[in-house]
Amino acid sequence: MATPRLASLTLRAADGGPLYVDVRTGARRGEARPAVVICHGFKGFKEWGFFPRVAERLALAGYTAVTFNFSGSGVGASSEVVDEPDRWFHQTLSADLADLDTVVTLVAAEASSWVGLLGHSRGGALAILQAARDPRVSALVTWAAVADFRRHPPEEMERWRREGRLQVVNSRTGQVLHIGTDALDDLEARGGSELDVVQGAALVRAPWLVIHGSADVTVPVEDAARLAGAAAPAVARLLLVEGAGHTFGARHPWAGTTPELDEALGATVRHYGAALGRSG
Fold first, then answer.
1. What band does 1 get if pLDDT is binned at 50, 70 and 90?
2. Core-most of 98, 145, 200, 215, by most CB within 10 Å?
3. Residue 219: how many CB atoms within 10 A of its CB?
4. 44: how many CB neighbours lie within 10 A of its CB?
5. Is the pLDDT of residue 279 over 60?
6. pLDDT at residue 252, rounded to an integer
């Protein structure tokens, strides 16, 4: 298997700014390979912890692996902190979905329409919504996906509306960030329809592996059960990784793999092998 190459691209994001994309592949020029698009979660970015390692593993298994920063992440092309705070402030879930669709459109043209999605946490929920509406998605894997974007207590939502912003502290960097009401408006307008994750789960038709840690205290394991239970019969399979937390023991900066992460990644590669035709 050829050593994967890394190429960085810049597309146009939903907010009109740059959309930063990394592509890892061992394909020869002109060779079409199945692609897997990887979606980070809230406060995440394409260089966080396990994402480059997951992409490298998928590329070694014969896929074109694509990571990217949602424009609302506010993280630049090579940064590991929010260095575009205005984009963070104006983030919306609808813009996230538009960014994901832009990336899928790019890779589908190069992968003979064989596209897999892999999403972690909030990125998992976005991957579900994309798979629900996009027949180009041939396989889906979610890691610790949320079943509902409404994760703030009512009193916090009221304060967010009243003050015009929500404060978020990045515990890793100490950055104090603020999200404006664009995100709140978007969720209130579309949360009962286009942004309903459980409703989206019921529409997924691609083979779907739902992976969740049994010890996840950030997103409860009940979310995984709701998502798998909402899917059509024979579409979704639930895998609980015993003792795993929200990031399967991985940290940022990267400090090496863990047995829990190895289990999740091994199951992911096997799932894509069955659905997309690569043995890994």
1. low
2. 145
3. 24
4. 21
5. no
6. 94
Residue 63 identity (one-letter amino acid) = Y
pLDDT at 29: 80
User: What burial class does residue 242 get, using C-beta atoms within 10 Å of its C-beta: 0-12 exposed, 13-18 middle, 19+ buried?
Assistant: exposed
CA distance 275 to 66: 18
Q: Could you count the other beta carbons within 10 Å of the beta carbon of residue 232?
A: 12
| Amino acid letter for position 86 | D
Assign 164 to helix, strand or coil: coil
Q: What is the CATH number of domain 5-150+190-276?
A: 3.40.50.1820
DSSP class per residue in 179-237: EEHHHHHHHHHHTTTTT-HHHHHTT--S-EEEEEETT-SSS-HHHHHHHHHHSPTTTEE
Q: For residues 79 and 48, is the Cβ–Cβ distance under 8 A?
A: no
